[in-house]
Design brief:
It comes from Ohtaekwangia koreensis. Residues 22-220 form the SusD-like N-terminal domain. Residues 364-512 form the RagB/SusD domain. Keywords: Cell outer membrane, Membrane, Signal. The protein is 42% helix and 6% strand. The strands form five sheets. Strands 1-5 form a two-stranded antiparallel sheet. A two-stranded antiparallel ribbon has the order 2-3. It has 19 helices and ten strands. It has 512 residues and is mainly alpha-helical. It has a domain at 397-470. The protein has helices at residues 3-14, 34-43, 49-58, 75-85, 100-103, 114-136, 147-170, 199-217, 230-244, 247-263, 271-274, 317-321, 328-331, 339-343, 400-412, 416-427, 442-456, 463-469, 501-506, and strands at residues 89-91, 181-184, 196-198, 300-304, 335-337, 356-357, 364-365, 394-398, 473-475, 487-489.
């Protein structure tokens, strides 16, 4: 790992710009020292808000995984990685080839491929930039007493934890007994290359960072939803506890998710926000609040408001996913739902209408779940492929996740009644007759919660996390181009990335 790059990138973020696509090959001759940054921050801590803004822009900017690849556009790109590894998302054709290696399970077996390294570079880039902010505030153990410093430290630690959490999922099979060595840990910008730490050590850092972030973000009023506030931090902590999964952890998941549900001010999406609806005669879109394209959605806890100034077009999540955006999905590489999963959606479930067999080839596109805000008709050739510059927003976290996590935790604790009640609260706006849930208990109830997680959060990058923490097995449907009908357990080689070759070559301490 090239530590000097990340120190330099942190300094550049401090000045309000970013690192270039070819940063792995650059050897900058000028950089601000961490001492200079710290001195400036002492005089005016608000200067560090530029670094925090840089962290958030990394989540949606292109090239943040260190390549010029058209699947390299931040968090939402890796959400697609996860959905394809979990097999609920199907790559429907190979006209351009983006994500074809992930669909083939190649980068999970070949540590030389870009797709094995892009997530590593992206998340460690955020970690080192966050560490630069933390160093400027006195270091990871330095107490913060002033409101500005507390909010900045809280956001930096939450972003560091978020990054380690995703790394632990992509590069580790799951928590298991905590002894597997999975990642190097860096908590400042000064240490040399580090060896692999255990899963236990990584999760201890994640939980410690998020616990302090929650303390420091109490009372912080963010100015936009791309910023981490106390509710985002609590949501991330709930995910970390759920992944570790001890009895005490599950009780913490219940406490955190109950708090989010009761007190955050966000709510579940209703039926009109979940799926696009159209006039039977004219085909006109009847509910413009649908489409999962607006950060003002009342269920979105964390997301980003994209504008023309964001400068996104072909290389974007919308470009890869949306029929109504001019890019790869429209041009011939659709991302569709696994037909085995589709068949499990109840016929009276409105979410089944999210997916449409657009061209009569048994490929069900998510065109009524995700669609560009400019859409006005059910299917209009003048609107298909119409969005050129991306102005529709990205969702990172929404309220539905915590109803499902809450139900999952209750069920794993053997408390079937509250688990069932919470699940039914979600299904009330989705399924006409959800009374079947009352007859479920034990493993059957846990299986139903996992299934509803897969249905509700399809295409949002959360199912891979659920697969790992539930130690599930995936069976690919017949519409997959690769390995149709084959099953893979959560701990199979196909579902976890290896330590990438560049890290092995550049970090001699890796196996100490």
């Amino acid at each position: 790992m090239k530590i000097s790059f990340y120190i330099t990138c942190t300094a550049i973020l401090f000045l309000g710009s970013g690192c270039g696509d070819d940063f792995l090959d650059k050897k900058p001759s000028e950089k601000l020292s961490s001492e200079q940054i710290a001195d400036a921050a002492k005089k005016d801590p608000s200067l560090l808000n530029g670094s925090i803004a840089g962290l958030y822009s990394t989540m949606y900017n292109t090239g943040t995984g260190g390549t010029t690849n058209h699947d390299d556009f931040g968090q939402k790109g890796y959400d697609i990685y996860g959905d394809m590894l979990a097999s609920d998302m199907v790559l429907g054709a190979l006209n351009y080839g983006w994500y074809s290696d992930v669909a083939r399970y190649q980068p999970t077996k070949d540590y030389t491929l870009d797709a094995a390294y892009q997530p590593w570079r992206y998340y460690y880039r955020i970690i080192f930039a966050a560490n630069g902010v933390i160093d400027a505030l006195g270091g990871t153990d330095a107490p913060q007493t002033e409101s500005i410093q507390r909010s900045i430290m809280g956001q930096a630690k939450a972003m560091r934890a978020y990054s380690y959490f995703y790394l632990a999922n992509f590069y580790g099979v799951g928590y298991e007994d905590g002894t597997n060595k999975i990642l190097p840990i860096y908590t400042n910008t000064q240490v040399p290359n580090q060896p692999l730490s255990t899963t236990e050590e990584v999760y201890n850092l994640i939980i410690s960072d998020l616990t302090q972030a929650i303390e420091y973000l109490d009372g912080f009023n963010r100015t936009s939803k791309d910023q981490i506030n106390v509710w985002v931090a609590k949501g991330l902590l709930a995910y970390a506890y759920a992944a570790r999964g001890t009895t005490a952890d599950l009780q913490n998941v219940v406490t955190l998710t109950e708090d989010i549900i009761a007190n955050s001010g966000y709510r579940l999406n209703n039926e009109n926000e979940v799926v696009g609806k159209f006039d039977a005669e004219t085909g006109a879109l009847l509910n413009t609040q649908a489409g999962f394209n607006n950060v003002s959605n009342p269920s979105w806890i964390w997301g980003v408001d994209l504008t023309l100034a964001s400068n996104l077009d072909l290389i974007s999540w919308w470009g890869q996913m949306d029929l109504f955006t001019y890019s790869y999905a429209w041009a011939g590489d659709p991302k569709v739902i696994d037909n085995g999963l589709y068949s499990l959606i109840h016929d009276d479930d409105v979410r089944k209408n999210q997916f449409v067999d657009v061209y009569g080839d048994d490929l069900y596109w998510p065109i009524n779940k995700f669609f560009a805000s400019q859409r006005t008709k059910e299917l209009d050739e003048n609107e298909i492929g119409g969005q050129r510059s991306i102005i529709d927003d990205y969702v990172y976290m929404r309220m539905e996740e915590f109803y499902l996590l809450n139900a999952e935790a209750y069920a794993k604790l053997g408390q079937d009644a509250p688990a069932s009640d919470r699940l039914k609260e979600l299904l009330e706006e989705r399924i006409e007759d959800y009374s079947y849930v009352d007859a479920l208990g034990g493993q059957a109830l846990q299986d139903e919660i996992y299934l509803q997680t897969r249905i509700e959060l399809w295409g949002e990058g959360k199912v891979y996390l659920a697969l790992k923490r539930n130690k599930a097995t995936v069976t690919r449907g017949s519409n997959h181009l690769f390995f149709p009908g084959e099953s893979f357990t959560y701990d199979s080689d196909e579902l976890t990335f290896p330590i990438p070759q560049a890290e092995v070559l550049n970090n001699p301490a890796l196996n100490q």
